[in-house]
Design a protein that fits this description.
This protein has about 110 residues and is mainly alpha-helical. It has one domain. Helices cover about 35% and strands about 10% of the residues. A three-stranded antiparallel β-sheet has the order 1-2-3, with no helix packed on it. The two termini are about 30 Å apart. The relative contact order is 0.16.
Length: about 110
């Protein structure tokens, strides 16, 4: 199992959005983690399930050599067609997973500022 957030050895460190941006400073870092979690190094087309794909690294996408469709790791996930950076999504996921109570959208918005 891969953890979304990495806790420093001393147990201290940044919290919330700052910590996510420190751990995953770029969109590419987030994409690498999502690809590792979703595909374990073997990208699969979400449209035809083929593993015959070619990377398109400049666009953080892959091209399916079977159905000729381009796709990213976020297709068919909550992150697909979002306008928020993946780092913010990671912070929200971390907040929800660490919370002992339910988390409202209002509280997520207040913490993200």
């Amino acid at each position: 199992m891969v953890r979304l957030m990495i806790t420093p050895a001393n147990g201290r460190g940044l919290v919330g959005l700052d910590r996510v941006y420190a751990t995953y400073p770029t969109k590419a870092d987030c994409v690498v983690l999502l690809e590792r979690l979703r595909w374990q190094g073997n990208p699969q087309c979400p449209y035809c399930n083929s593993t015959r794909t070619s990377p398109m690294p400049k666009e953080d996408r892959h091209h399916c050599n079977n159905c000729s469709t381009a796709f990213s790791v976020t297709v068919n996930t909550a992150f697909h067609h979002t306008h928020l950076p993946l780092q913010k999504w990671f912070a929200v996921v971390s907040l929800v997973l660490k919370s002992r109570r339910s988390v409202s959208a209002l509280s997520v918005g207040a913490r993200g500022r």
